[in-house]
Amino acid sequence: MKTAITSLKACMDSEVDLQFGHCGCFVIYDSTNGSIEFLPNPYRENKEQAGLLAIQLLHGKNVQKIISGDFGQKVKPILDSHKIQMIILSNTNITIRKIIELLQEQSVKTT
Amino acid sequence: MSRIKTPRKLSNPPIIRGFNPYGPLVDLTKTESVILHYEEFEAFKLCDYDHLTHHQASILMHISRPTFTRIYASARSKIAISFAEGRQIEVEGGKIYFESDWYHCNQCQSHFNNPDRMLQLTNCPLCGSEQIENAKQEDKSITDREEISMHLVCAHCGYDVNMQVINRYSKTHCPHCKRLMRGNSVLKNQI
Predict the structure, then answer these.
(1) Can you say whether the dihedral through the CA atoms of B17, B23, B27, B33 is positive or negative?
(2) Domain residue spans of chain A
């Protein structure tokens, strides 16, 4: 299962970006083989529809969970229709490395 | 210029894409199929499968009661045309949006949704903790008005039980296979 995390920068010690559509970078973690992909957000500077275009990008990569600080009102119904799970963090000081460790622990428990 | 339609809320997308008639007199190549919109499918399901009143179903779909009645009438009319003329039904289109249930994890303090209503969430998808609770506020305007005894049946494993629920929208999951249970309700003490 692929999980996308919105990140401020393309590094493991970066913090989670509060925005979804205008975030700096997407970190895609694949729990089946443990791979991590850093994907710069091409729609970061868009004035409109950044979230909708970002969903198309992530849906094309078969992402099933998205972790972010918040999601816009236009984005939520579309993610629901694609059956992509949204996870909103209240503690945004958490680093990408810590989140991936949590996801790894969980995948070990389930297997 | 006409007013823009309010988007209709759907709980889950339909599991089918349409229906085909069969029989010796049916010729699918000569007849056009009937397009049943998603909101019409949902209205028909809420009224005739879940046995809700138009008022209760309209609240679930976030539209007014007269609008719901018009959608329901259109759905019945299209289904009748399809049956009478032996035409295919295609379920597609309509101005709709989906909305899922939201949960809160007491351990990592994160909020998350359940994208598939037919399955029950037991763990937080981030930290794996079992200390999760439903973050959705129930609609008081409906819950205060009725007290219902329901006979619930699990369509998957056949487990059935009689129980009192606060309102007919309360979701009960099967203790054996964790799937959403369905059932007929008997209204009691409706005010």
Answers:
(1) negative
(2) 2-110
